[in-house]
Amino acid sequence: MSPFTLASLGALSLVVLLAHRRGGRRLSTLVGVFFGVQVAIASGVAALVPMPFTAALYYGQAALYLHAVTLFRARMPSLPWRLFVSWPASVYFAGTLLAWPWALVGVFAHVGATVWIPFALAALGALESFVTRMEHVHVPLGDAPVDALQRVKASAHRVERPLRIVQITDPHLGSFMSERRLRTLCERAVAQSPDLIVLTGDLLTIESNHAGDALARALSPLRALEGRTFACMGNHDHEVPDVVAAALRDARVKLLVDEMATAQTPWGAVEIVGYDFVFRAREEHLAAVTARHPRTPGVVRIGLLHDPGAFRHLPAGAADLVLSGHTHGGQVGLVRLGLPHTFVSMVSPIPDHGLWGLGSMRLYVHRGTGHYGFPVRVGVPAEESVLHVHPRA
User: Fold this and answer.
1) 304 in Cβ contact with 231 (< 8 Å)
2) How far is 304 from 326, CA to CA, in rounded Å?
3) CATH assignment at residue 312
4) Are 316 and 340 in a shared domain?
5) How far is the C-alpha of 381 from the C-alpha of 353, rounded, in Å?
6) Do 36 and 98 fall into the same domain?
7) pLDDT tens digit string along 13-37?
């Protein structure tokens, strides 16, 4: 066993131990599997790299474990830490995971000269993670029903005054989403003069779980649209629900947890239902919430549902338009090239990004402004958009 592998396994043992102290067996098992795979691939890559370049691998591996250890402190990282630890660790980790074919093929063939390619992709992905693409998306309501869940075109029957909605989802305050950056996104959202602003979950990361003050300050520009801003819970919001609720309350954002609110818009009254995120019995949960808040005839209803995978479980006609996030747009894919394909669409039936239809309902899956888990975006730009919702013809 090489010194690189031995050192990596030693650091991994320490991280697993800290994870167990922080979150028990479930978190330590997840960390052990996740980083164990990384060590296996990195060891294969190290065997392909000429000796002078192994120093870069040691730096990347050290930065990765330093970054992992500090995650359990639940503190927002400083700029120097992000520059020299968090961001290099993220690029290195993403590059390592993308390099698994090289580590595998390298056992049988000489591919060392090309092993830089996945790390170059990861570096480009890190740069892409800092850029949001402003878009104007036209969403028609009342088109012909579709029999099965499918992607639909965002066009048709334009009107002079569509409903303007800005959606903020999955900012994941942390290494790649600073307080200042999130505040700027909120300022730009308000500057669009939308009729509604909705937040569809996952505001924090493990780094920022105890940074409620930072989140409140970042969201503070939304106070300018009090009464027109609404939010639902995402899966990561349930790690510190009180922190999230307090920050939203401070920003004058109405948090809807299996609740309904009515907003006054240029269309008149619009009903907004915020569905809570649940892991199990989603169909029963969504049916119960929908039944508890019956629709008012002739009034448009918008559903806030963090996980688009739950959309198919909504009762027919539960909402005219459902807004989701969660997938980060697929996070790795070909969207930057104008193609819809992403990693999520390759491995699951979950709607990954864009406009979808099922029956008379429409679903818009926002690509998100941040990311989590896989540490960078590759080919799937973050989204900053205005939805122009067009009523039935």
Assistant:
1) yes
2) 12
3) 3.60.21.10
4) yes
5) 11
6) yes
7) 888 888 888 778 888 888 888 889 9
Q: How far apart are the first and last CA of the chain?
A: 69
Helix (H, G, I), strand (E, B) or coil at 264: strand
Global pTM value: 0.92
Q: Are residues 140 and 122 in the same domain?
A: no
Number of domains in the chain: 2
> What sign results for the dihedral spanned by CA atoms 267, 271, 277, 278?
negative
Per-residue DSSP letter, 257: S
Which stretches of the chain drop beneath a pLDDT of 50? none
Q: What is the pLDDT of residue 309?
A: 96
Secondary structure class of 42 (helix, strand, coil): helix
Residue whose structure tokens are 């899966």? 235
For 307-334, the pLDDT digits (tens) are 999 999 999 999 999 999 999 999 999 9
Cα gap 140→357, rounded to integer Å: 11
Indicate the pairing of strand 300-305 with strand 268-275: parallel
Q: How far apart are CA 281 and CA 86, in angstroms?
A: 37
Structural domain boundaries enclosing 385 = 135-390
Is there a single domain that holds both residue 100 and residue 181? no
Q: What is the per-residue pLDDT for 218?
A: 97
At residue 231, φ and ψ (nearest 5 deg) are -145, 155
